[in-house]
Design a protein that fits this description.
Aspartate Aminotransferase, domain 1; Aspartate Aminotransferase, domain 2; 2 domains; alpha/beta; homodimer; globular
Amino acid sequence: MKRISLASALVPFKAYLNIFDCLWTERIGRGKYVEQLEAKACEFFNVKNCIAVGNGTLADILVLMAMKIKINDPSKHQVVMPALTFVAHSNAVIMAGLTPVFVDVGDDLQMDQDQCKQAVNKHTLCIFPVHLLGVECKIPKVRVPVLEDCCEAMGGITKKGKKFFGTQGTAGTFSMYPSHTITTGEGGLILSNDDEFAKLIRSLHNHGKVAGSNDFNFDHIGINAKMTNLQAAIGCAVFDTIDEVNQRRKENVILYNFILGQDFYSAAPHGYPVIYKDKEQRDWALEVLGDRGIEARKLMSCVPNLKPYQELGFGVQGYNAQRLADCGLFLPLHQRLTKQDIERICNALIRP
Amino acid sequence: MKRISLASALVPFKAYLNIFDCLWTERIGRGKYVEQLEAKACEFFNVKNCIAVGNGTLADILVLMAMKIKINDPSKHQVVMPALTFVAHSNAVIMAGLTPVFVDVGDDLQMDQDQCKQAVNKHTLCIFPVHLLGVECKIPKVRVPVLEDCCEAMGGITKKGKKFFGTQGTAGTFSMYPSHTITTGEGGLILSNDDEFAKLIRSLHNHGKVAGSNDFNFDHIGINAKMTNLQAAIGCAVFDTIDEVNQRRKENVILYNFILGQDFYSAAPHGYPVIYKDKEQRDWALEVLGDRGIEARKLMSCVPNLKPYQELGFGVQGYNAQRLADCGLFLPLHQRLTKQDIERICNALIRP
């Protein structure tokens, strides 16, 4: 029985050629493909600056570090974000020395707008919404800077205004992990139309180095989050497939919707969510899928209730996010699934 | 005129084959080469555990995060370290939410032993010496845990006791950046004989995930510092060259010593240091070398006096480390330099 996995890494032939070039010229650390990938992203997203980084988590850490330096007010240390998300998103907040403020989400994965507005106060540094599973997260109208986590939503476009995800706030972060639209193994991108902010990130991702300096001069306390030429060599090859991959995944969503009678929509589909009435049924469904060789996963986590966050005092009660994490799962949606695969998944699926 | 660079990335033919295998099987994120590289390192260093990570800076951050969790005492937040080092080393301390305590170094790059002992107090979490330029840093005898930064010293062995660098304390960190003994573009390794500590690091480098769990269960607040299969594919190929590369570099040191009348020794040579009587002469020497197509660099930084550290109140006065950073430089030493290259460098060098 063919195993159906959640992710499928696409490696076009062009990637082989680019990689061979890196190896042959021995440019496996820095190199031209990093610049080419950044230029490609600027053109595709119609954005002024792109910084390619090692992975999406590092992208999140960097935009937060940069925001902290930009705002330069230690009393502003809170980052308002959804309670239902992938833990890397909130871990980045802690790693940047900031405090997450978790807002509940609805079944539509949208942050509770009222709670969001209430959460913003004089200590708020920024809000940091996420387009989870590629589903557009409407940016709450608040008077603080916006960072957009688009790690699961490469190439997504807003319904209203037709703007690319990642271009609505000060900066947007992307991941190119194998489960995402395009992959470079590990990899991340940061987009920003704010030149100063982008310059700051470029410094921070290279140990805080003074731009253009080849000496040991440093402006900031930074990290090493540089993307390698090898990663970028693949990135340049796969970047051209973003629209095609998202289109294929959208077709899969339509098929799922038709079979399961749901009306899910995602601008950059990452996984197909199914919500059960209780945890037992969801866990049973996951077990049955697993037994039939189908990889599916729980619907992320209600982060404030994860053990390490509980220990830091972030625990919440009565959040819908916890219900979604307990009762939800998501199904494979990648570009290589066939109609037969999706039918097989739906046949194996215990209907909610 | 041939340019002589500080670094030279060696990409053996075996790396091409391994990389092709990764691309063909589409295992560019995780994969077997990561495990193979870790096993190779355990065997080579005769150490119980190895975790391959994205780069050396992330390795440093991870061992500090793990030490903080292991000791589990918020009053212990100080990390005693040398003032002369590459900034990533101390940035890692800040990123882990800890406080660096900078100890001066002598012209032999050794931490001042008395100052080191005085620096250790009830707030000390650990000491974090570095084998800068591959020169053995003797571990001060203090009653706190030791972490060893071996980012510039892959394969070095202590003079006394013949122990591998990185195996003397709780954990050791390594970098595989192109300027180092072996390179994977970017890349790092963490060694530890402490099984619990290694397990903790393995969790922390993968978002704090519970070992073996495929679900969204997390024990700790972690980061993403995973090495990719592509990096490891090169790593497995270059790992076998460590001794050979270090041997070639040691021969270069002997040649430099002979021509320049110095008696420098490094267990895992990274750069050949020259100290001038003042900054003007050093800067002039760097300029002349640059004009003649020879890449050389300042001798790291006196980190507490770097702008971002000054701003945090770490500034020091009268440190020999500052004199070394001001008056020192290091010359290329890599495995591909010819006798003629070294003669050309020495001819271009303004003698101190």
